Amino acid sequence: MENLNRSVESRPLRWGILSTGTIAEKFVSEAVGLKNHRVQAVASRSIEKARGFAGKFGIERAWGTYQELFDDPDVDVIYVGTPHVFHYENTLAALTAGKSVLCEKPLTINAFQARSLFQTARRNNVYLMEALWTFFLPAWKKVQGWLAQERIGKVRLLQAELGFSTAFDPNSRLFDPELGGGALLDLGVYAVSAAQQVVGNPPEALDARARLSPSGVDMSTVMTAVYPGGILAQLSCSLEQLTENALVIYGEKGKITVPHFWMADEATLQSQTGDDFFRDDRKTLGYAYEALAVEADLTEGRKENLLVSGDFSVALAETLDRARKLTGVVYPGEK
Questions:
Q1: Annotation says 154 is catalytic
Q2: Model-level pTM greater than 0.85?
Q3: CATH number of 13-133+289-303
Q4: Among residues 35, 56, 99, 105, which one is catalytic?
Q5: Which CATH class is domain 135-284+316-334?
Q6: Cβ neighbour number for residue 147 with a 10 Å cutoff
Q7: What is the pLDDT of residues 123-157, one digit of tens each?
């Protein structure tokens, strides 16, 4: 396989897009404007959809099968944006073909699959990252800086909630167990991953309760967790209730508040050591930052990201598995 260690003077990083859905559109709309990046090809099971997507974004190649994208010699990295129940098979096929992959969150529907993907990536010496874009945003970088400087002292408590009001629809992906539906994997992944990023480890103890939909997936899930060092967390997600949608990190000297933390554009520090405020005036959602992180990793010869490593993603998937076991949500392929 061609060595993807790159210098900034080398040819552009060539992306292949697997999916023509909404999340893929959001990613590509920002990736096409990045210097030293090129969206080279897109694939769909429908050649008409692939051609329509390619025309919309000025993409050179449209493929009517995923295998054609995997076999394209002019694609360096594949962005997987399919529904998350398909992430495992799509990403496994891309890695097996020798392609590096940025796969949307959640990486897989369970930890067994997540471990398998990173084992495959390491065996094939190719790059793999879960697209947890939150942690590459400027506001999150600022929060990480405040924590590293101990501006609020030792962290004692976290609260993270993310919820929207959505009417139950048995035909929607969100409520379909065959597609890995439910609040936890769609929204809760942000709250759980944020807590894991702040603390640096998964929880030592976890309790979870959920209200299930008629289809058997969770409409809302509430988790209470105890992390190393006795740090406590309250984490919640909902498809049926609009919530405060914020992350609050409490420390012995103050607190950090991040509104809309999964797509953060601001953060507030209130502390005995002095208050601070950060606002990011970007005009986009911010998906470009994860694409730049992939470029930086490949340029520097890394096969995994330092913030969202294989160990991080597997630990995150294990926590989500623990929560689902407690709430009784089981997907058809797991029975």
A1: no
A2: yes
A3: 3.40.50.720
A4: 105
A5: alpha beta
A6: 19
A7: 999 999 999 999 999 999 999 999 999 999 999 99
